[in-house]
Amino acid sequence: MTNYAGPLYEINFVIAGTMPPDFESWLEELGRTALLQAGIENVRLFEHGIDGDGHTIRTCQFLARDDNALDELLDGYFADIDAEAAEQFGDQIIVESRTLRTDHVLDLPPNESPVCLNCGTRLRGQYCGICGQRSRSRLISIWQLLREAFGDLFELDSRLWRTVVPLLIRPGKLTRDYLEGRRARYMPPFRSYLVLSVIFFLVAFFDPQSIRQIIDPVPIPTAEETAQKEEAAKAASAEREQQLAAAIEKLDALDVEGTLPEDIVAEFSKADGDFQINFGGDDDNDFFGDCENASITGDGDIPAWLQDRFTDEQVQQICKHNKARGSKNFIAAIADNIPVALIVLLPIMAMVLKLLYPLSRRYFVEHLLFFVHFHAFFFLMLALQILFARITGLLAAEDGAIDGISTLIIVVASFYIPVYLYKAMRHVYGQGHVVTIFKYVILLVAYLTGATFTMLGAFLVAVLSP
Description:
single chain, 466 residues, alpha+beta, Alpha-Beta Plaits, 2 domains, 14 helices, 57% helix
């Protein structure tokens, strides 16, 4: 039987206990009538053996003409066999089945499960009817592995592209289609949000200079070059101190009350293209200055709960901790908290929409879905803008006119984001221009306020995190 190219459908009849007296004759009749079915090329009956519980197993294998014939038999004749066995023998016979195919790659015996390895549903063909996973579990080749990894990216008809294109150019379409039940053609909303947010943060925080340094590393300066650079920095610092002293003398000459405390003078420098601020610190790379003098101050009375939580000693300890980890690690900690802050912002804005549309009869999760799609679009636009700016930045070095054109395109794309939000509200909620503009202004103010507070929360978490 295994020499045929067609698929085999195998039914195992597990006899639980004593064999029913008419089972053998029923099985023989099954073998004879099966040959009369269209699509069955051959039938084989044999005793499979005894399982671990001591139950006798009788096996019947049906050779199908091809996969199309097998699919028709699964929905018809083979389903009738299961029903007939259950009707005549009840619990005395346990029916198990599976589909077998010849392995043409390594000529290995087929190794397939009668149930889906993903969800446990009984298989009736090459694919699971519940989760859609293919019955074959063995990886065929490296090429198949790559196709499974990047198939959605390179297939023009994949759900990824069918989601990204309308998300970018048709405001509100994904949300409305999802609410109206047209969902299978698109990537699930939260998956789209996560994929596009990951792409954005990779694009935003990936430094192309790191690859350039690997390919063409910057030579390490010699001791003489380092000494010259330090001398130049000292000279520049001394010159700034002289300018500051001269400015203070002029203020004193004008009889201005008080002098400018030198320990809180903000030092700005443009050296090496970096913009640095140091409030009384010795290291220009730190945001935090003299932590011994750090304290919490305010114009009015500070609330008691704030004084209990942030005493001068605690503020000094926080300052020392952040000063010790450096400004780069501090900025990285803030960046790590931004995705969480944006996720926190989603239900807040969904609640604002719920209040703006009290008569829409939409559930809270439907308003949440609206902002999930909007944030996914927002991440996509920012990622495209950053990529476009970097590409045109490389070209602008050769042609200065490109720089102005790219700036104009980025500005237009930035204005498209609030316009997109308005058009999405119109498309999803279907109200007139006047009402939508009024609610849009309220939503925009609420969004900017919520984004400000969530970003402030991300900053505070970064400051207070150990």
